[in-house]
Amino acid sequence: MDHVVAPDVVRETLAEYGAMxxxxxxxxxxxxxxxxxxxxxLADYPRRGGKMMRxxxxxxxxxxxxxxIDDALLSAVAIELMHNALLIHDDIEDESEQRRDSPTLxxxxxxxxxxxxxxxxxxxxxxxxxxxxxxxxxxLALSIVRETERMAWESAxxxxxxxxxxxxxxxxxxxxxxxxxxxxxTCWLASIHPGRIGAMIGTRDSIDLEPFxxxxxxxxxxxxxxxxxxxxxPDETYGKEPNxxxxxxxxxxxxxxxxxxxxxxxxxxxxELLDSARAVRTAEQVAWIRALMEEYGSIAYARGIxxxxxxxALHEYARIFDCLPDSRDRxxxxxxxxxxxxxx
Length: 344
What we know:
The structure is a single chain. This protein is an all-alpha fold. It has one domain (6-339): Farnesyl Diphosphate Synthase (Orthogonal Bundle). Helices cover 75% and strands 1% of the residues. The chain has a two-stranded antiparallel sheet with strand order 1-2. Helix 5 runs antiparallel to helix 10 (175-203).
């Protein structure tokens, strides 16, 4: 497929499958009490929008292997509900201020209500998986529940790694450390799980799922590094706090690179700054760290790794999908490897 066409195919598919998933998701938001303290909050993040990459990848993969949209839709809804639940928790843990161009849920309603809402939204994500039993049969539906449990554990382990590094003020982290964390925290939910679930649905659970870990890792890691870069160089469409990752002390590829290349005096200052609470970290200190990233070429370094990972994702894509008939869904999956660098 011509790479020039890919962005249009990706945008159109995200819009179509995203709209379907959002419409189906609405049925799972109860109109009940306590509304102002729970049920109104449940729908907040999902209704703010989002790119819908995860649900669309699930549906497209299922269709590539011969399933209908309806067979994949409930699983796509479950993925989006879990994604939004984890966003609420992430924002609390990171002390983030913005999500999708609006204040975070805990900034609006306080940590206790936001935390409870994230818990409830994670529970709610199980309902479409239970509804799958009637749609695609109990054997396949149960396999998807088990896959979902694996994804949730991988995500929790990755989040623990990142939070632990910040709590313990860890330094000397390698690229391999970062990529292992991203494999778990980002890739399983963003790209591995949706691809595996879609393939399970499309083949009635008769395909080797291991190649989807490789493809999903390369795609998801490139996506995460690009997201980290956008945090440093945001455009008008960026919906989160600029330089928020530095304020939060996240051990991104760029921050780890700066620490490795800095001389001992700068390392000591970096360690002291990163050991302080976010609330006392100043804009001037963040700007100093950001300038070091430019000075040591950390941004270009991370960008190069992201593009290399996207190239590896294309290689794994070919091994999985090139034997299948061409279709818009297949083009969409391939196009994601380009879209992650040009997404709005």
